[in-house]
Amino acid sequence: ARGSIVDYVVSRGPAPTPTPKPTAKPTPKPTAKPTPKPTPKPTPTPTATPEPSAVASPAPGDLLERIQAAGTLVVNVDPADAPWSSQASNGSYRGYDVDIAKRIASSLGVDLVFTDYPMEQVVTGDWGGRFDIAMQHLAITDERRGVLDFGAPYAFDPTIGIVTAVAASGSPQPDAGAWCAAQGSVASDWLNGTLALTDPPVAPADPPADVTLAATPNEDDCITLVASSPQGANGIAGGFVSLVHATSTIGDGAPIAIQGDPVFYAPIGVAADRSGPDAAALIAQFDDIIGTLRDDGTLSSRSEARFDGLDLATVPGGGSTAPVPQGSDPAFSVDQQLLDQFPAEAAGVDLTPVAMNGADLDLLLRPANADINDAYTSFLSLGGDASTGIAGLSLVMAPVITTDGSAMLTAARMDGVNAKEVAVNLTPLLTNQYRDPRSESVSVGDRKVIRVSDGAYTEGDPATFIYRRSGVLWYVAGTQALAEQVLAAVP
């Protein structure tokens, strides 16, 4: 296919110029060393810097190369999921996930920074370059692999049934009534019959027949509900929570008891965003590091230290771990069909288009251009009703530079979202340099377009011309005379 496909655009570089000016000979800009600026403000955790492990040469611009160039690994953890991870009053982080993250950073020979974005912003992907990887007690499921790439498991989290201490003694029957589980958790998926763990070490048990799920905001609330429901009060028979959480709560005196064996063991892995830069080399490096930590006993010793003697690192059933299957294509890639529709020539100029997705555009602009912040609320809402978010937006663009002037041609499309809605949400971002944007319907050549200008339009002024056809939006930023020539080449 023509053009360059960009699966990820540098997120820490300068913002692009919406309308490039022609020059006799482009002068390459020096590449600035990326400086990650995660939000909320991270708490740096210095790590020892041993000799980095040998790795295969990463492809230019992939995630491993970017981390090595920055000298920093940015890891997202949960600030309130002890003993997996938690944040102390002094701002530092601790827990099993934190322990393993420190050893990964040390093996890579880079510093470590933590962020703590919520789980719902992690499992949907499209992280926007805010962090490099997530170590957030993340169960590896087939659904999550649609948007995330995972390293081999570094733990196996058992989910167990809990009942009141009274029920455990034999009265009432523990299968009578509803069972609680945290909403959106793997336990609730199991109860609903929708859980699809990726390569679980032991096949999950069948969920109880005809069970009613009582969803709670989190596991703490489920445990509290079970503890406060003696003799089947509140219609609650029991709940399903992490074994770690259950044993810890029992140790603190909660009137609950564990019922039976674990119903499944969720593999827990390091995750990378599939809408970001290629993580294949980094995942391979993680697998080597985790393998070494498993073989030398580090994973087991840290697990026993953090989980009151429980060894969650050893593979249940005595098996071994294997690399997690990755998708054959990026979950959010470029739109090859849109790229093929893009004209090869316009205004007598051969075009070299670049293709990207909405997440790429977000990353390219967000860090360096505060002026466009007002346009983000609308832009980020694109695809809000689907799992893709703005990463599902397809973009192809190319500069058109002639002896008389320059323009930028951009094509945009989003499956499942009509072109008018895309225009409403995308246009403010592409015209953010206009201090007094005004739009009107005009004819440019034989095309009916929307012209957006900065203030009242005067012939010869630069403007943005928007042409909508067959679900595709075509934007031309430049003078109307040049826009007419460019639009004539658009199918």
Provide a descriptive summary of the structure in words.
Helix content is 25%, strand content 26%. It has helices at 63-70, 96-108, 119-122, 165-168, 186-192, 219-227, 243-251, 280-295, 298-306, 336-341, 358-365, 373-380, 419-430, 480-487, and strands at 4-5, 43-45, 72-76, 80-81, 85-87, 93-94, 111-115, 133-134, 148-150, 155-164, 178-182, 213-216, 236-242, 256-268, 271-273, 345-346, 349-350, 354-357, 393-401, 406-414, 437-444, 447-454, 462-469, 472-479. The strands form five sheets. Strands 1-18-19-20-24-23-22-21 form an eight-stranded mixed beta sheet. A hairpin with a 7-residue loop joins β22 and β23 (462-469). α2 (96-108) crosses α8. The longest helix is centred in the middle third of the chain and has 16 residues, at 280-295.
How would you sum up this structure in a few lines?
This protein is α+β, with helices and mostly antiparallel strands and 491 residues long.
Q: What separation lies between the terminal Cα atoms?
A: 17 Å
Helix content range: 10-25%
Major pleated sheet:
8 strands, mixed
Structural class of the secondary structure composition?
Answer: alpha+beta
Compute the number of helices.
14
Would you report the number of β strands? Answer: 24
Rg calc: 27 Å
Shape: elongated
**Average residue-wise pLDDT:** 82
